[in-house]
Amino acid sequence: MAAVADTISNVQSRLLVPSTATKNQVITIKTLIQHPMYSGFTKDSSGKTIAREIIHSFTCTFNGQPVFAMDLNPAISANPFIEFPVKVDQSGTFEFTWVDDNGATYKNQAQITVS
Amino acid sequence: MEDISTGMMSRRDLLGAAAGVALISLVPVPADATPDDVKKWVGAAIPGPYQSGKVTISAPPIAENGNTVPIGISVDSPMTDQNYVKTIAVAADGNPLPGVAVIHLSPANGQANVNFRIRLAQTQTITAVAQMSDGTAYAATQLIKVTIGGCGG
Is the pLDDT of residue A76 over 90? Predict the structure, then answer.
């Protein structure tokens, strides 16, 4: 039987988003979230299988419009790092959402000024 | 049936290797995915046929640590409203499960270039398939040698 994973707490995300850009510039966004990404295939020190618990979904919106999404599988490393481009044509807010297998969602946001 | 027997072999090999490295508390698990599993998984995400070209996989030829292998997928596309990359599916044939990630893009990205980090249980081939807005699909593969396998897939 799979052991119950320790409660995952203190999930924190880090963002690297430029604060300014010129109109129609393609910027690079880097995101990282602290999460063990239990694959369901590893064992703890007592030999019990650790139940799967991963972040299975990541989405990014800009001013409410979806601009990037990724479905994650257990083959994604712990503390998932994702880097992707976005072409910005106006100032606004990026909102980032990660969804955990346990139902929790983690959010973060960043502003950009486009001139 | 061949797959099962080779799976058993690799399970023994991996357990033997793990016993040799007793300091590692997280025991690597058997790698059960096969190239057929990869085809099925990719086909479910993006239907074929697949052409070659356009897709580039950037990854180290030799990964010292299979727990975090940096990988980049880029697709040659203008990313305009008329012609853009819709979906990229990434799979691995030497992990317990074939799927790695499905990435959804749009003209809002400006470029089709995504980087992330993956787990590789052993030396294996990565497959990346990109589906364009016109429905065509392009595939690329890359062999990555792994010195120390990552835990699980």
Answer: yes
